[in-house]
Amino acid sequence: MSKIRSVCIVDDASGMRKLGVALLEKLGYDVHVAENGYTALQVIRDQRPDACFIDREMPELDGLRLIELLRGWREWGGKPIAMLSSASSVFDQQTGLISGADLYLTKPFTRAKLQDALLEMDELLE
């Protein structure tokens, strides 16, 4: 049985948020959304999701910095984070992982990609 029941999607593109919500809700997850890094901090504090999908490139507080903040936040407790990005070079992926992401998914994502990522994230909680 999955340990992850709720997920937060952080992305400044409304279309990506809507797609993520639709796919994750069909898979049975409770989904919370934030349109930027600052809003994400509030949503995560209030909703306490089990995992996050965070866009790399957002104005003001980007995904790299948001992940660094979450990793230093005791309340987050090392829960899994997947970075989402259209940047797919090895350098981009390594930068995302070095910032603290557990996984790096390139956009556009599919239901299968999200499902695989959630299975991997669930294993990290064991």
UniProtKB/TrEMBL annotation:
It comes from the Bacteria. SMART domains: REC. Pfam families: Response_reg (PF00072). The lineage of its organism: Bacteria, Pseudomonadati, Pseudomonadota, Gammaproteobacteria, Pseudomonadales. This is Response regulator. Keywords: Phosphoprotein, Two-component regulatory system. The keyword ATP-binding does not apply. The modification 4-aspartylphosphate is found at D55. Residues 6-122 form the Response regulatory domain.
